[in-house]
Design brief:
The protein has 2 domains: 7-183, 3-Layer(aba) Sandwich (Rossmann fold); 191-276, N-(1-d-carboxylethyl)-l-norvaline Dehydrogenase, domain 2 (Orthogonal Bundle). Helices cover 46% and strands 14% of the residues. It has helices at 15-26, 38-57, 63-71, 95-108, 124-129, 162-174, 190-206, 212-221, 228-235, 237-250, 261-268, and strands at 7-11, 30-34, 73-76, 86-89, 114-117, 137-142, 151-156, 178-183. Bound molecules: nicotinamide-adenine-dinucleotide. Nicotinamide-adenine-dinucleotide (NAD) binds at residues 11-17, 35-37, 40, 90-93, 97, 101, 118-120, 142-144, 235-236, 239, 275.
Length: 285
Amino acid sequence: MDQIIQTVCVCGAGTMGSGIAQIAAQSGFYTILYDVNDEMVGKAEQGMQATLQQLTEKHKITTQDKADTLSRLRFTHDMNDCLADVVIEAIVEKPGIKTALFNQLAEVNHSEVIFATNTSSLSVTDIARQVMRPERVAGMHFFNPAPVMKLVEVVTTPYSNNHTIATIVELARQLGKTPVLCKDAPGFIVNHVARPYYLEALKLAEQGIGDFETIDLLLEATGFKMGPFRLMDLIGNDVNYAVSCSVYEQLGSPERLRPSPLQKERVDKQELGRKTKKGYYNYNS
Ligand SMILES: NC(=O)c1ccc[n+]([C@@H]2O[C@H](COP(=O)([O-])OP(=O)(O)OC[C@H]3O[C@@H](n4cnc5c(N)ncnc54)[C@H](O)[C@@H]3O)[C@@H](O)[C@H]2O)c1
């Protein structure tokens, strides 16, 4: 790798962006966490303080580590602050908004900047095609919770050059992750294989064969770490529904992958899971 990464800009201060920014700053990178929504920026800053404090109290990091991590973090809603060697976007799962963001950031950044998208399901090739310097775009798909989950799918497109891929692989390693290369495809590998896990469980609930909790308990008892409803609430029901729709459409609308009305209902009611304190379950804390 011929480019030394010093600064990482994470865009989107929600579930994923906050976690990615945390590990970037803990791993020694100067980290900018940007969100278009000022309220989300404030929440992310408070959340980060609380998380690092908890890690200190559990003796996972020292008080000095906490202070050093915070000193490397900058929280902003001003795009002019987003000057970095690598940009990782974790914003809303809508292709036009992601490409617009990359193009705006290309205007304020140097020409060597690398753009990584944390999209769960959108075509990275389509995103790259619409961005200035498509050879500098690739997927960097983290899993939730980003500070805990080791896997990162590094998604290559026909445009991405070796330097871009090598930089993202190296960055993932420096974040303590296990990067796995995969070609751009609907849902990549993990979200392609995982789709039926959610959709079959949703069908059982729709048909009244089992309620959310029963289905979760049974699947957890067979060895799955989280039942499908608990997992969808963790992911965010808006994100999970967007991924279901995107994979379904990209694969030619096969009946077996049709998104469930239960997913749409949660989104329409803004019952998005843990982040709104209500989803398939209620969350009071
Ligand atoms: N939630 C998961 O489990 C998960 C896992 C892997 C990947 N992803 C992907 O990560 C991305 C983000 O998901 P999330 O769950 O963190 O979403 P989220 O809803 O928790 O957060 C999204 C954030 O993006 C911000 N945002 C929206 N438009 C923006 C813009 N133009 N510029 C800057 N900020 C903007 C919103 O204000 C919000 O704070 C999506 O592409 C999703 O598919 C999610």
